[in-house]
Amino acid sequence: MVLKPDLNSVNFANIENSVNFVLILNQQNQLDLEYVRSQFPGLNNGWTYFDNAGGSQILTGVVERLNDFLYKRNVQTGGSYETSLKTSAAVLEGRSAMAQFINADRPEEIVFAPSSTVALNNLAEAISHQLKPGDEIIVTVSDHESNIGSWVRLEKRGVIVKFWELNKDSFELEIEELESLISERTRLVAVTHVSNIIGTINPIKEIARIVHSHGALICVDSVAFAPHRLIDVRDLDVDFLVFSTYKVYGPHFAVLYGKYELLLELENLYHYFHGKDEVPRKLEPGNPSYELAYSVAGIVEYFEEIGSGLTVESGKREKLEAAFEAVAIHEAGLSETLLSYLRFRNDCKIIGLESGTDYRRVPTISFFIKDKNPDQIARSVEKYNLAIRFGDFYARRLVDYLGYGDQNGVVRVSAVHYNTIGEVESLVEAFEKELN
Description:
There is one protein chain. This protein is an alpha/beta fold. The chain folds into two domains: 18-57 and 316-435, Aspartate Aminotransferase, domain 1; 62-300, Aspartate Aminotransferase, domain 2, CATH 3.40.640. The protein contains 16 helices and 15 strands. It has helices spanning 18-25, 33-38, 60-72, 82-102, 116-128, 146-152, 175-181, 204-213, 233-236, 260-265, 290-295, 297-308, 316-344, 374-380, 396-402, 421-435, and strands at 48-49, 110-113, 136-140, 160-164, 166-167, 172-173, 186-192, 217-221, 240-244, 254-258, 348-351, 364-369, 386-387, 389-391, 410-414. The strands form four sheets. It has a seven-stranded mixed sheet with strand order 2-10-9-8-7-3-4, sandwiched between helices. Strands 11-12-15-14 form a four-stranded antiparallel sheet, with helices on one face. Strand 8 (217-221), helix 9 (233-236) and strand 9 (240-244) form a beta-alpha-beta unit. Helix 3 (60-72) packs across helix 12 (297-308), helix 12 (297-308) packs across helix 13 and helix 13 packs parallel to helix 16. The longest helix is centred in the last third of the chain and has 29 residues, at 316-344. The chain is globular and about 65 Å long.
């Protein structure tokens, strides 16, 4: 049974950016899905991918940039000859594109890393020299382990780690709980923008305001947010933020943002002769992958192209905003199509917001069905070439905290904007055949 989504029934209570979402739900602008899907050749192999929170398909433009770099400028930076100068320019182009993508002040605020896990491990090591025994760090139980374990390891140096727990009924972090945990010894709060299991956008701007009012820093894991909404680090006023480009239609690579003055204060992780003012180089030991750094500019070009047909504004940022507004409304339809079916089942427990048209909901939807093992559910739809997942998705502490650790975690269906309503309907039909 497929219930069509009602995109006019939006929950506006206490929603960050809800006014903007009211506007986009009432706009006629829509994604050109034919164009969108044409940019992802990996969609043509017979499978429908609902495992995008684990890693999205890669853009043609990104692969073309990879090839262009490797064929035309595959040399080291730092030389005085023409090809080396082009290599340096290519890396700067990628860094500048990512700065534009998240609205950073300058390219030097972009630190490249092989993965978000490595980026956060490096950040924790670089900042640890500023911490003393007895200093406190707050982490959330709902984060990916990358933004927990990196900080928990600092307990060996005498740092006290406090856990910001989740409301088990609403599956939400409560601001009152943060305010009860934070103290004059708090130096940093690490929080997820969106849990990769729960799929609810946390009010990062409000959290940052509270954290800063106590003189602490905030580090945000935006990995599960970045494919669905446009990041604006200046508006959020975050100190550090990380996301993975391979989950935003690019290569297996990651971006760590930091306010420039804070990056200057971090310890050098590279060779001893690199100065503390060599930002971001001192935080990229061994140098980043040049070809991957150059390729990520293709992500920005893609969203600019989408946005150019949806706005009369000529600025790059305005085009990105228009593109992600269209992404949000399309994905609301994807989410509500699946959630309306799951709500219909009296044997289903949805983890997180149950309305796909709530602005805080991204199409990363986890659930379990009574008397059905998550692995059984995931494998049951593979015969229809539908790819979904089960497990803890490296949010092991969250799964255990919620009491799902002894049942192979949860089932997760994670869509992105290149998925279609028809694909979600096919998934629902497969569930109807296999789970009843």
